[in-house]
Amino acid sequence: xxxxxxxxxxLLLLAVFVSATWGISQSEIQQxxxxxxxxxxxxxxxxxxxxxxIGFAAAEQVGASGKIYLxxxxxxxxANLKKEAEQRKLRNVAVxxxxxxxxxxxxxxxxxxxxxxxxxHLTAPAEMDSSLLRSLKPGGELVVIDFPPRKSLTESDPxxxxxxxxGGHGIPKKILVQELAAxxxxxxxxxxxxxDDNYLVIFRxxxx
Length: 208
Description:
The protein is of the alpha/beta class. The chain contains 7 helices and 7 strands. Helix content is 39%, strand content 24%. Strand 2 (67-72), helix 4 (75-87) and strand 3 form a beta-alpha-beta unit. Helix 5 packs across helix 7. It is globular, with a radius of gyration of 18 Å.
């Protein structure tokens, strides 16, 4: 019986780990592409791109006349993104080393910026929010996908260095909206039931 309980506990922990690290599905990428209306000529940045699934898919949609920026802090992920872009021969993809407090993207460069399950990791959200605003063109779109604090992740995988008001691993949607509004963004649309128990909020940079 004891061994059985240990096995169940191990499986539960494994499920939590897989849930926390699972990459994005193709169906979610397609849903995001429709929602954002990816099209030729657009300039889009995936901030905290991870494995680059979103950015590489968007690169096909924006075409040679568009451009995709993939940003990452992690050196190994940066190297992997560059290698992948080279192997795919994607000349419209630029891999950028991010910083803790800024995107390192050119000012007014992007029609749209995406952060998927990244915002709750920001240790300097006010500075990064201002940088995101600068990186967008007037009228540009910011799409943030994230999730409320989850007890299982808070206990097994706490996030270090973030503001205390997160309430654990994740971020309440209300706080996310408040912080980005303080930076100058306007919240336009919220989707409460996004895949993988996430929520999605679309923000806009004012045109003037």
